[in-house]
Design a protein that fits this description.
Length: 252
């Protein structure tokens, strides 16, 4: 009788989870198969994941920027949870064996601070520029002493890393931004998010950015402490131009 209560959406969501994690385990244990990873991931993401997204159909006349942003963030986490290759094509665990038993090291954490200082203002600026995409220069902010300290507090507060090491370690952090501009119209917010991530995969630089290591390796090796990377994103649709723009920001 319990099976009678399972909805198609629940079944497909469960299948998606099973397939993506099965692929991850197979590829970790069989490095020779890692070249199949990109195609297998995209099939899983775009087919199984988007089947479950029918409940969030896009009405472009009433486009929900906040919902689109939230779902892009969720899809990015799913993406990070399934990949096994760096943007260069190298296998994560061949270079950082600790990831085998600690796969969570590859999952960055959402940051409201990063959202307020990069994703939201940056996307709000470029949405006014028609069907084009560019990176907003945030170097003055990112390399400022205030930003180093504020980011250090987000990343290291509550950890075993000595407070005296927070800012020095923050000096090694790297900032990355992925940007895109779309005229395409997708059926659901899930499909839109997957499409954006897949589009970034076709660019060498964007691919490297969204597939990079996100945890602090120095803290892990010296203090056995997991210091995760942070990320944020923003999606805005402009009804007048019909353009959708998305920004993904990462500090690793």
């Amino acid at each position: 009788m319990i099976w009678a209560n399972l909805t198609p959406d629940f079944i497909m969501a469960s299948l998606n989870y099973f397939v993506t994690h099965l692929l991850f385990m197979v590829l970790i244990r069989n490095p020779k198969t890692h070249h199949m990873k990109v195609n297998l991931f995209l099939i899983s993401l775009l087919y199984f994941g988007n089947y479950h997204s029918a409940q969030t159909k896009i009405d472009y006349a009433n486009f929900d920027n906040d919902l689109a942003t939230k779902i892009l963030g969720q899809k990015f986490i799913e993406f990070r949870d399934t990949i096994t290759l760096l943007g260069s094509g190298l296998v994560f665990t061949n270079l950082r064996p600790e990831i085998v038993s600690n796969p969570d090291l590859m999952i960055p954490k959402w940051s409201d601070y990063l959202y307020n200082n990069t994703s939201n203002p940056n996307c709000s600026k470029i949405i006014k520029e028609g069907h084009s995409a560019r990176h907003i220069d945030v170097s003055k902010w990112f390399y400022s002493e205030d930003a180093k300290w504020e980011i250090a507090q987000i990343k290291f507060k509550g950890s075993k890393v000595p407070k005296s090491s927070w800012v020095p370690l923050s000096s090694y952090l790297v900032y990355n931004e992925n940007v895109c501009s779309l005229m395409d119209k997708l059926n659901t917010y899930e499909e839109l998010a997957s499409y954006i991530i897949t589009l970034w995969e076709t660019s060498k630089e964007h691919r490297r950015a969204q597939r990079g290591y996100t945890y602090d390796t120095l803290s892990y090796k010296k203090y056995n402490e997991k210091i995760y990377g942070i990320f944020s994103c923003k999606v805005i649709y402009d009804k007048n131009s019909g353009v959708t723009k998305a920004v993904l920001n990462m500090v690793n």
